[in-house]
Design goal:
Oligomer: single chain
Strand order of the largest sheet: 4-3-2-1-5-6-9-13-12
Structural class: alpha/beta
Number of helices: 26
Mean pLDDT: 89
Low-confidence stretches: 200-214, 569-593
Number of strands: 15
Distance between the termini: 33 Å
């Protein structure tokens, strides 16, 4: 009830204040326990995107960084930054504090170049809000000095530490916050010694350890147009589960379609939020096909344009060179131009290292050859590239597995699962739900227009309301259905999620019955066919497959909060139109640091 929740929230404030106190005494285990307790209370009583929830996420992340557990801190920090950007705006010191913790997380994971823009933005905000000599700036300057040292900017690092010491002396009497002064002086001495001895940059323990990565599972390269809809993001979530189970080992993710950098930033933050911070992201080839971003996640992070990306072709070549012969699967959830260009530029590498091509698109068997289905969107984006890849695979005896839209049609999944995923308290689940609702409403608006209206875009005239209700398996009782009934009773087709599962032979054997064509003793499988006007999904059991997908999604979204003992939120609906109260004030801790 309301009284009980209010009492619990006051208890959360006490946990937060105590956590901050013991943190200052370097009792990090105790601090983490207190901040976890506050986080659990707030998630029970508030929405997952509430400002007070972001405070607990931020303090948990800060404590984990102090304990050298940046890999656990990063997903929590991303959530804190995103919530604070929305609740407070991107010029507020609360947002700045979250950026500081995010930069510490990236720095501790050996990604100091990615950390730099975030700490710079943090300091820019603080200098505007406070005076340039304000004591609140000192911790942020120390973080900036650490990052500058890590990237080899030793002289700038030294001047930053010295500035922090000067501000400390301006604000505090002798003996006050002595630990902070000692830290500044110790770090200055270390940099001075490095400059004097011309030692250059010596990697920190965190940086060195981040290079020691345990690999397991089948190596896979993923090519995606993530953000065009929610499907690619769901496939990446499933990848996180398969990675944790050592079933798949993602070597890199390549993004394609304009806008290139925005799409790569989206992929980067999704991977980071799912504890896949070590998986590199590259920008793929330019494709003469219109693209858009329908899914927006972690905009409080991505709008800083902090990340630097390698060209996709060079990144793929680099990871392939390090791979064992005939070990790597390439999963293409988008057009095939990047694989086509890889073959042209690095044909010997492609032939020697690639084990199989798995693609979401469509294929048919004609004249003793497997050819791409030109009506499939991914193939149609660059049909020449699609033809080239299929021909090269057959010529070089590289197996292929093609998943078509007909496979997805045999496995519709009720929209209610998005609401169930939201109970994990992972912000990505909420973003996906909201993006899908928006796109469904836009499509409904278009199909409700007469066929001659320009607002329909390129929708065929057959796509009317009746088509919509039939295609999305909307179950309504009568013709007086409301719009809410439509959204709550419709279904989705998870094309790319099926493709991700098809990278795993055990899943293919369990869930699918592909049509296999042997060409020069090499198997080329197609899951989902249209033959003589008859659709065949190739799905063995829709119920088992849907349960598999939902279980993998739920597991992946729960993983980043492991150890936080987070209790799923109760306040969830299939879609939900909740508008949480913004709590701009805070009685516990220093959210405005």
């Amino acid at each position: 009830n309301g009284i009980g929740e209010e009492t619990d929230l006051h208890l959360a404030i006490s946990h937060t204040q105590l956590g901050c106190t013991v943190f200052a005494l370097n009792k990090y285990d105790d601090a983490l326990q207190e901040h976890r307790a506050a986080l659990n209370i707030r998630l029970r009583a508030l929405e997952g995107n509430d400002a007070l929830v972001s405070e607990s996420f931020n303090y948990c992340a800060e404590t984990l960084c102090a304990m050298g557990r940046e890999a656990e801190a990063l997903p929590l920090s991303l959530q804190a930054v995103d919530i604070r950007a929305r609740e407070f705006g991107t010029s507020h010191p609360a947002y700045a504090h979250a950026l500081c913790i995010l930069s510490k997380s990236y720095h501790g994971l050996g990604r100091s170049q990615d950390a730099m823009p975030f700490i710079e933005k943090c300091l820019h905000i603080c200098k505007k809000v406070f005076s340039e000599k304000h004591a609140n700036i000192i911790p942020n300057l120390i973080v900036q000095g650490d990052i500058l040292q890590a990237v080899g900017e030793l002289e700038k690092s030294l001047s930053t530490y010295q500035l922090a010491e000067s501000i400390h002396n301006t604000n505090f009497k002798p003996g006050q916050k002595e630990f902070q002064l000692k830290e500044c002086r110790q770090k200055s001495k270390e940099v001075e010694l490095a400059l004097k001895n011309e030692m250059g940059f010596v990697p920190s323990a965190a940086t060195r350890n981040s290079e020691i990565i345990v690999h397991g599972g089948t190596p896979v390269i993923i090519i995606t147009d993530v953000g065009r809809d929610i499907d690619d993001a769901l496939a990446l979530i499933i990848l996180s589960s398969l990675k944790k189970m050592f079933i798949l080992n993602p070597l890199c993710v390549i993004t394609t379609l304009e806008p290139n950098n925005e799409r790569a930033c989206l992929a980067r933050t999704i991977l980071d939020s799912l504890s896949m911070h070590e998986v590199p992201v590259g920008i793929g080839a330019d494709v003469a096909c219109p693209g858009e971003i329908a899914l927006h996640c972690y905009e409080g992070v991505t709008q800083q344009n902090a990340f630097q990306f390698e060209r996709g072709s060079s990144l793929m070549a680099r990871v392939l060179k390090q791979a064992e012969p005939k070990s790597v699967k390439m999963l293409c959830l988008a057009n095939l131009k990047d694989i086509s260009e890889l073959i042209v530029k690095h044909e010997a590498l492609f032939r020697s290292k690639v084990k199989e091509i798995v693609t979401m698109g469509g294929a048919t068997y004609s004249g003793s050859r497997v050819i791409p289905d030109e009506t499939a969107f991914n193939n149609n984006c660059d049909i020449q590239a699609a033809r080239h890849v299929y021909a090269e695979c057959q010529q070089n005896h590289i197996p292929t597995t093609t998943i078509s839209r007909y496979a997805a049609y045999g496995c519709p999944i009720g929209i209610g699962f998005l609401g169930r995923l939201q109970k994990t308290n992972h912000l990505l689940a909420s973003e996906i739900r909201d993006a899908n609702l928006k796109s469904m409403k836009q499509l409904w608006k278009k199909v409700s227009m007469p066929s001659w209206m320009p607002g329909r875009g390129k929708l065929p005239s057959r796509c009317n309301r009746e088509w919509f209700l039939d295609f999305f398996k909307v179950k309504v009782d009568d013709e007086t259905y409301t719009s809410d009934e439509i959204w709550e009773n419709s279904s989705l087709y998870l094309y790319d999620s099926l493709a991700m599962l098809s990278c795993v032979d055990a899943y293919v054997e369990l869930h699918f019955s592909p049509k296999c064509y042997m060409i020069d003793r090499t198997p080329h499988r197609v899951i989902g066919l249209l033959e003589e006007g008859v659709q065949s999904s190739g799905v063995n059991s829709k119920e088992y497959l849907v349960n598999e997908i939902e279980g993998l999604l739920r597991e992946a979204l729960t993983m980043p909060l492991e150890g936080m003992d987070v209790i799923p939120t109760v306040k969830t609906s299939n879609y939900g139109n909740e508008t949480p109260d913004k709590k701009k004030a805070n009685d516990g801790g220093n959210v405005f640091d």
